[in-house]
Amino acid sequence: MTTLKTDPGVDLESFVDEVTSLYPPKVAKKRRAHMVVRKDGDPGLAQQIEANTRTVPGIITQRGCCYAGCKGVVIGPYGDMVHIVHGPVGCSFYAWLTRRNQFRARGEAGKNYLSYCFTTDMQDEDIIFGGEKKLAQAIREAAAIFRPEAISVHATCPVGLIGDDIQAVARELSKETGIPVMAFNCEGYKGVSQSAGHHIANNKIFDMALGTREREAGRFSVNVLGEYNIGGDAYEIERVLEKCGIEVVATFSGNSVYEDMCTAHSANLNLVMCHRSINYLAEMMETKFGIPWMKVNFIGMRSMSQSLRKIARYFDDAALTARIESVIAEEEARAETALAAYMPGLEGKTAMLFVGGSRAHHYMHLMRDLGMEPLVAGFEFAHRDDYEGRRVIPTIRVDADSKNIEELKVTADPERYRPRLDPAYREQLEREGLLSSYEGMWDDMGEGTLVIDDVSHVEIEKLIHRMNPDIICSGIKDKYVIEKFGVPCKQLHNYDYSGPYAGYEGAVNFARDVYAMIHSPAWKLTRSPFDTGPTLTAGLND
Amino acid sequence: MLLRHTPTEIKERSALNINPAKTCQPIGAMYAGLGIKGCLPHSHGSQGCCAYHRSTLTRHYKEPVSAATSSFTEGASVFGGQANLLQAIENIFSVYEPEIIAVHTTCLSETIGDDLNQIVDKAVKEGKVPDGKQVIFASTPSYVGSHVTGFSNMVKGMVKCLAVSSGKKNGKVNIIPGWVEPADMEEIKRIAGMIGVSFTMFPDTSGVLNGPLTGEYHMFPDAGTPAEDIRAAGDAIGTLALGEWCSADAARTLDSQCKVPCRVLDMPIGLKATDRFIDALRVVAGTSVPDTVNFERGQLIDVISDYHQYFFGKKVALVGDPDQLIALTEFLLTLDMQPVHVVTGTPGKKFEARIRELCAGKGFDVNVRAAGDMFLLHQWIKNEPVDLIMGNTYCKYIVRDEDIPYVRFGFPIMDRVGHQYFPVTGYKGGIRLMEKILGVLLDRADRDAPEEKFELVY
What is the C-alpha to C-alpha distance for residues B355 and B238, in angstroms, rounded to an integer? Predict the structure, then answer.
């Protein structure tokens, strides 16, 4: 836990009261529970935040839907699959190439469908008479034209309402075409945010693909879970891991192919980047196959090094540990040299972070490496465990809006369950907090910081007015709102079309981009000279 | 190859749309709503739609796009979204204080059959709509038509919810510009101003979606058509609706509702469509066209004559929205170009007929498809290559694979600046379009010419 060096001079408790007083009383009470002013020395047990509850209608939320969480986030990045969106045209159109999950086809003849957008383009007659036949035909056409490794089908809002049985169509067409067809019931209205879609995607991967094919993996083999290769992040992570002698079996799901989804159970360790979107799979893989998982953070130089050391500790091999230490030394030295130019311009700058379900936390470490201070942070759709740590999971109550998201019953695979660690060593690592644990965002936020869940437009406006941060990290919908105020906004979903931001090279890229953004001449030019000069001048020659 | 799996051989598809040349209704309604002064668009559905529509408009304009949503949950999806919308209306007016909320629907609320008329009525009766403020609405089912249909439906919604006839004409002409860029709306107003017509234009996104950076943020910029002007549209002497797909419905509704006669014209893109627009303005206002307008027209003709040799006979592939493509096709034909492949994702057989009619007797065969997609367009291009492609940002994947000169045109353009600041309508817009086309054609000539044939002057 750290405390602020820069006191923004704002009494946060009264600020929060003031902001919530803008709402009608019932809404004010609800929103108040989503804001927590962090108190120093609180281990996260006394303070509690409300999260993963329904969005207040009309409030102007940043949130998206279940479909976006399933197709847009978890499944969409699989490059050799054809992803068919069963619905009217919009859902597939808006998710067409707009998330920057990069993908390289495997070899010259490798398949890559990521530039394409596939939809059943439902019409009113499909709503009235049902869309199952059209969906079946669409799968047939996709199979005939493209012969992909697998096909996914994603339900959108009306599909659930009209009762199309996409699971039955998928089973039937899998048989008919000989291509695996995975159907996801990720209708947009399910749950309260993208989060429900993550869970639905995890379940189906686990249920239908994982463990269906075998592969030989070496001793130091890992999967990277919850890493979507935005702007090439996964490439940088893989580069460093491979340099250390660590084999990446599968990444879920950046730069991945269907085969990876099927063989991931052969790895010896799961590394969880985005806890929110993939912790379900990590848990289920451990129960069924005996693969332990650990939370890592590859964003920021020091977190990257720390994560590598955790991996070394897990594998407990002298040669591997030595190699990891030499990679850390080399990479840190190179990054520090490159960062020297930017550090003086970033030191002491204040920031706010409002990003999805994990980055608002991950990037705090990188910012602190650069001498920057996060004042306020929040997630769109994370749950309490992402804020408060997994220790609070037993106390989380699933409310009416999310209770219909299925929980799979998982048991150990009678043949393939294999404990990866000696029980005594495992116990020791658990005691050290290295396994099956995530401390949550606010362990890293100290006295005088503010946590806001599902932040609304008006709340961001008030924060800017009152706290005047040097930079805000958010997404496309907020970027230009924030910048109209003269405050730079770094998009931490799409990196403003830059990247990678992960790993050592990523830290340098991020520092350069943020430095350029904060020091852009534009912010100093907003006042027009005609507004500030005297209204009358005597002549042109003086 | 980015689109390495697109085969040259064309097989008819009956169910799978690949690389759509359209998107869904509500985004058009949101765009139209932003053209009313002090208006907050509201999406009555689950919140994913609203997030996507705001994001897409923002990527196109690099500007804030404010809109609220009813944020349906599973419960609301089964039992109806009335409570969500009522709560949203109350929250929006107390927190964001718009003058007007423009509600549109999604496939979700349309499938469950929410009755907007009844819900808005209830909101008014329950006092959730402050005095002097209003809630207008339009039904915009995503499974009918396209984003263009949604735009049209919301403009019609403006007329239905706002326009009234007082029985006394106000001497003004209504101009419904259709889905054009803020810069085009500005240009259309400038032209009407030059003709000396007293007019009301709606919607009008100029100043809303191409605003300045001043260090201050205003959710509702001092721009857009005031609601009272749309109300008074019922007293106008006539309506000029630009674009059959975007504007005709609203104009005809205004005619039947308030007895304001209307005329549907093409969007004023290119020489002839601009001529017809100006002629219509002149006639309806009873004025004569000033020299300044003829001067601009003459400049356009001058550029056509100066550079005709580079346009002559060039084959073009076009993809986009029907009203823009009809006018653009006519303009390219005026330049002696050959629009050989024309695709819109928006359904409507009239489109195909109109394009065929325009191209008839020009010495080439045109492939045209309404409710087509960009996969088909790409296959057509593979079978009959073109010298130029014009369309939205998604064309760049075809362009890179096939190495074709490319002019960004239409919606969305998410990777370049300009469309929000410089018009393609009017005579000035015609010159700008030619400048852009010549730019890419002559850059290509410069790139490909052998050294000894490399030219200094064109």
Answer: 28
**Is some CB atom of chain B closer than 8 A to the CB atom of A517?**
no
Residue A198 falls in the annotated catalytic set: yes
**CATH number of the domain that B48 lies in?**
3.40.50.1980
Q: How far is CA B447 from CA A120, B315, B398, B437, B442, in A?
A: 41, 19, 19, 15, 8
Helices assigned H by DSSP within A99-193: 124-129, 132-146, 157-162, 166-177
Query: How many domains is chain B partitioned into structurally?
Result: 3
Domain ranges, residue B197:
173-291
What does the pLDDT read at residue A359?
98
Closest CB to A94: pick one of B25, B52, B96. Answer: B52
pLDDT tens digits, one per residue of B216-265: 999 999 999 999 999 999 999 999 999 999 999 999 999 999 999 999 99
Tens digit of each residue's pLDDT (9 = 90 or more) over A22-73: 999 999 999 999 999 998 766 656 899 999 999 999 999 999 999 999 999 9
**CB of A526 less than 8 A from some CB of B:** yes
Q: How many Cβ pairs within 8 Å bridge chains A and B?
A: 250
Interface contact flag, B71 A122, Cβ < 8 Å: no
Cβ neighbours, 10 Å, residue B170: 14
| pLDDT the model gives residue B436 | 98
Reported as a pLDDT band with limits 50, 70 and 90, residue A537 is low
Tokens of A13: 């408790």
B26 vs chain A: nearest CA distance in angstroms?
9
Q: Is residue B301 part of a domain?
A: no
Backbone dihedral angles phi then psi of residue B225, each to the nearest 5 degrees: -80, 125
Q: Is the pLDDT of residue B192 over 60?
A: yes
Query: What rounded mean pLDDT belongs to chain A?
Result: 95
Q: Are residues B314 and B242 in the same domain?
A: no
Residue A200 CA to residue A166 CA, distance in Å, equals: 14
Which of B143, B147, B416 to probe the A interface (max A CBs under 10 A)?
A: B143
Put simply, whether A109 touches B (Cβ < 8 Å) is no
Answering whether pTM is above 0.80, one says: yes
CB contacts, 8 Å: B133 with chain A: none
The CATH code of domain A66-188 reads: 3.40.50.1980
- What are the boundaries of each domain within chain A? 66-188
Given B59, B71, B394, which is nearest A476 (Cβ)? Answer: B59
Residue B370's pLDDT band (boundaries 50, 70, 90)?
A: very high
Q: What is the mean pLDDT of residues A280-306?
A: 98
Which amino acid would we find at residue B340? V
Helix A476-484 to helix A457-467 angle (10° resolution) is 40
Q: What is the predicted pLDDT for the residue at A1?
A: 46
Catalytic residue among A34, A38, A51, A68: A68
B104 contacts B41 by C-beta, under 8 angstroms = yes
B447 and B315 within one domain: yes
Asked if A55's CB is within 8 angstroms of B71's CB, the reply is yes
Determine, for residues B26 and A90 on separate chains, whether the beta-carbon distance falls below 8 Å. yes
Last residue of a domain, one of B162, B188, B203: B162
A10 touches chain B (CB under 8 A): no
Query: Which tens digit of pLDDT belongs to each residue from A480-491?
Result: 999 999 999 999
* Chain B residues whose beta carbon lies within 8 Å of the beta carbon of residue A457: 66, 96, 219
**Is residue B137 in some structural domain?**
yes
Strand partners of residue B241: B176, B264
Q: Is A319:A439 a contact under the CB 8 Å cutoff? A: no
Query: CB distance A484–B216 less than 8 Å?
Result: yes
